[in-house]
Every structure is written in structure tokens, then in C-alpha cells.
Amino acid sequence: MLIVFPLNDKPDWRHPPWITLLLILINAIIFFGPQRREAAAEERAATYYLHSELPRIEYPRYLAELRERGTPEASRQAQFAQQALDRHNPGLVLQMIESDRAFLARLDADEVISASDPVHYRWRDLRERFQVMRGPSFTRHWGLDPSLWRPLNLFTATFLHGGFAHWFGNMLFLFVFGYTVERTLGPLRYLMFYLLSGLGGSILDQAARYGSDSIGVGASGAIAGLMAMYVVLYGVRRIKFFFQILFYFDYVTAPAIILLPAWIIDQLLQQWFGSSGIAYMAHLGGLLTGAGLMTWFVRRHAQAREAVVDRVPVASAEDKHKDAYQLVVAMRLDEARLAYARLASDMPSDRTLVEQFFNVARLAPDSEEFHQSARLVFRYKAADAQTGQWIHDSFRTYLETARPAIRMATSDLAPLILRFAREGYALDAAILVQMLFGRTPQDPRLPLLMLTCIEALKRVGEAARAERMSVELCRQYPDSDAALAISSPPT
Length: 491
Prior knowledge:
Rhomboid-like fold, three-stranded antiparallel beta sheet, 3 strands, 4% strand
């Protein structure tokens, strides 16, 4: 199961999300009002039932009917009910009877316990007392019954919940996603989109569970729609969010829109492999409806979208740097390499950052980030001796460790040749000259670069190498000013 919370925005209490708060209030009134009274009445009625003669009369007949149905599902239910009785959990069998509408219909019609049965009179009296104590079912009346087409219930079911945890979880997600979406859409459009998302979830849930005896309740479809609206609103904008997958949880910063396919896939997998009793198709219907509605909105109201999206606080460079460093400390080196790559690309003039990027990337010498980090080092502009030493040392490391081979940009070669020649690294300047010549022998800068390298070789005592390069210069570029300067003795 995938759980996600965005961490990039906060409510603006100068302009409270009134519709979101109103929706939470309505859900609370219904849950703690008629639904709570209904639950209390059902608990009292169940206590009466289990202490009466009704289990002794009804349970054997219910088990017999399940076995007589002859279907695999009925056989599993009969086995499950018998196990519940063997484990002294008769309340579970009562729940099964009260949700089995086919059996209840036959029971009420005196087809299970006929008028000629000696226990009929006593049973009928006990059963009627039980039904009076339980009272009419508010949840069943207003919930989504997959076997009946009641259009109003497609909406009313989204304001009912199956328990406190169900209610609280939905209200938490409603608030977290609702206040941002409400600020974007405005109160009336937000309310309309919320209700339409709930409608989309209910329709898909009814289609997926058509004919089922279980009643669908919950705001999950509408809230899934809000979640989809949220990620479509932010699109490819990177947001920070908390996520949990099964027992693993973490924080990550990523484009918001990637959550939509992740949620859709999660709901499909849960529908196919997850536990029964959860309306995953209601979630999926809400997601698809909310995504469609917000896509329509952002195309027609780009300015309203930007007014909200631009409020997302951009993490400071210092915070990003700390996050990248923490990834190194945690030995999550692949993630650290990518984090440093983004940071260094944004701030190529920060030597500390570029150096750290190179040091992390060199641990994966076959990675694209290693080549990227080397390019940033070679393009560093400062001309002090310490920087020159760092660039040269990095060049040697790159030359010796890059796999399968170095990938220096041709545009970087000439500046680096001049730098190495000037700072006394003549042998490495000569390597780069040969590299540039092998790539673009017609480069008009080559004669002058070769001459510069020749003079640097002479200064470091490499006269033989300087002579060989002089011969090559005169042979390849005999008419160049550099060749003429070598062949003409000074006056």
C-alpha cells in the first residue's frame, strides 16, 4: 500500500479553507451523530441477540443453508462460520447473517423457520425484539448498495464512514490536500470538483461490485480526486513529500506528477491482490475524475494555477547541500551522486560543491555523473595556484579511472591545454594536444596551441618531447605562423 503526504505547502489562515473545513465538519456531524447512535444501538442489539435463544435457533439453520447453496463461496462462508463458532466468536456469525440479504429475506418470509415449526412463535418474538432494539439502518439507507441503482446515494455514501479510524484518516487527507486545491479553484468550483470526484468513485465502485451485499461508504473516492487534482496542479514541479510503501518510509523530492501513475498502479494492484472490504475502485474512479477535472482547469486558468504553484518554497542551496551530504553519510551513494549532479549544475562556480560532486562521482567511474563532474572541474575559471593544482589532480584521476574511456568535450581541450602549459603541467598539455589533433586536425588553433606546449615542455626540461612536437608542427602546418616562428632563428 502506498501512502503519500506532501510537505511543500502550509495553510494560509488569513484566508482559511472554508469549504474544506465545512466538509470535515459535515462528515464529523454525520459520523458522531446518526452513525454513532446507530453503532450504539447495534451494539446493544447484538448483546441482546447473543444472550438470547436466537443463536441456538438461527445459527444451525444458517450453516445448513450455506451448505445447501452448493457454491464455492457459500462453502467457504460455511467453513468460516463454523470456525468462528469453534473459537467461541459467535458475534462474527451474527455479522454474517445480518449482511446476507438472501438469508434475511427468507427468514422474514418464514421460509427458514416456518409457522409449523415448534420454535416459530418464540423465535418470532425474540427476532422482533432484536430488530426493534437495532432500529432502522441509517448507513444502509444512505450508503452505496451495489445491487440497487439509487443515484442520490452515489453522493450521500461519500459522507459516511465505517469506523473512527476510517473517518479520521479520510479527514486528515482531506485537509492536507484540500486547502491547497481549494485555494487554487475557489470555494464553489472546489466543492463541485470534490463532489464530482466522489461521484466518479461511487460509479466505478458500483460497477466493480455490482450485485454485492456489502454497503459502500467513505469519502475516499472524493479525497482520491483531491490527491489527483493536487499532483496535476503542480505537474512537473518538484515537491518534497513523505511516502510509505508497506514497511518502508522515507522523504523524497520529486516531480509531483509521478505520484498519479504510482497511485493508479497501486489501486489496481490492491484491487487484484489486496484484501476485500476496501473499495479500491472507488479510489481509482476518484483519481481519474479528479485528474481529468484539474487538467481541464489548468489549461483554461493558467494564471490561477501559477499563483498557487509559485508559493512553493524552494529549498535553499544550503539545505540541498545538507541533504546531499546526508545521503553520503547514509551510504546511499547513487542518490547522493544524482543530488550533487543537480546542485553542481546549478552552481558551477562553487568549488567546494563541484569538488564534492567529483569525489562522490569518482566512486562510480562508469557513470555519466563522473564525466559530468569532470567537465565541471575542467571549466572552473579561477586562476590561483591551488585551484590549478586541484584541476590538474582531478584530470589525472579522471584520465586513470574513467570507464570505459574519458569523454572530454572538444570545446574544453583548448582552454585546458593553455592552462596546463601556463601552470607547468606540460606533459598533460601535450596529451591534450594529441587528443585535439586526433579529433579535429583542421582546428585553426592547433598550431598556436602546439607552439605553446612546445615552449612549456622546454621549460620543464623535456627538450626531446619539445623537439618531436616541433617537427610535427612544421610537418602538419608548414605555412602557419607557429611553424615559421620555430623554423626562423631569432634575430
